[in-house]
Specification:
Layout lengths: L20 H4 L1 E2 L10 E6 L14 H10 L4 E2 L3 E2 L3 E6 L11 H21 L4 E5 L4 H6 L9 E6 L17 H8 L3 E7 L6 H9 L3 E4 H4 L3 H11 L5 E6 L10
Parallel strand pairs: 1-5, 2-5, 2-6, 7-8, 7-10, 8-9
Antiparallel strand pairs: 3-4
Length: 249
């Protein structure tokens, strides 16, 4: 399938010494993805959202915000070797008549496209989009000889039963059914999940760290996440924006 062309990345600073992501991110084709340290892949879709929609705007918003960020890292030096593969051709599915049908279709498309990126040895950074897309992003890693773990920064467990079709709340139940080995949820909130899903996560070999526990410090949080997936050969990291403190602290 044909991806959309990556947008023009433009820095926002008039200072010629301010190198920004807008200056160093290179549009590229899938065939050259392996030549870069990381590649961005846009996934403009929110047709699986249970509640408020709008995540389809995520890829464009992330690119706009990132374009003006400076590239210097004090330990590693300036960022280099980042490419943009454009957006996957899934935006048209946002307004389908029957979400229960088109969510599965989108997950299959994303899985095929993600597999093509992995096959070229590239490190993808998927820009979503709702959390149903995680199924397509992780599925190509499953079924081989490597064990796979996910670290999910999320206020919710997203382990609902997809009996009536997949949604943004079912990705990890789907992935466990497909062979996922470990799941560590970081930032889960009290009173925003059900006991049945907490029990499922525990029985499936997963674990969680509540938002209160995350507040104890970044070192403890990182240790928890790394320990949870330490035995896995491959690790996928997912960030759901609702993990952020709603009060802005």
């Amino acid at each position: 399938m044909t991806r959309t062309e990556p947008p023009a990345w433009e820095g926002t600073s008039s200072d010629p010494n301010d190198e920004q992501f807008g200056h160093v991110v290179s549009p590229t084709d899938i065939e050259d993805a392996g030549d870069y340290r990381a590649v961005l892949v846009g996934e403009p879709y929110d047709g699986a959202v249970i509640g408020r929609r709008g995540a389809r705007e995520g890829p464009a918003a992330i690119r706009r915000a990132l374009a003006g960020v400076k590239t210097h890292h004090f330990d590693e030096g300036p960022v280099a070797g980042v490419a943009d593969l454009g957006d996957l051709p899934i935006e048209a599915y946002n307004d389908g008549d029957d979400p229960a049908n088109h969510v599965a279709d989108v997950q299959a498309i994303v899985a095929d496209e993600a597999a093509a990126v992995y096959e070229r040895g590239a490190l993808p950074v998927f820009l979503g989009g709702d959390n149903s897309l995680t199924v397509g992003n992780v599925t190509p890693l499953l079924g081989g000889g490597d064990s796979v773990g996910v670290v999910s920064f999320d206020a919710h467990l997203d382990c609902r039963d997809p009996a009536d079709g997949p949604t943004s709340g079912t990705p990890y139940r789907q992935l466990f059914d497909a062979g996922l080995d470990r799941l560590a949820v970081v930032g889960a909130r009290h009173f925003e999940t059900s006991t049945a899903y907490t029990d499922f996560l525990r029985d499936a070999g997963g674990t969680s760290l509540t938002a209160d526990e995350v507040g104890r410090g970044p070192v403890e949080t990182a240790d928890f996440a790394l320990d949870a997936v330490a035995a896995c050969d491959r690790v996928f990291v997912s960030l759901d924006v609702d993990v952020l403190d709603q009060n802005g602290r």
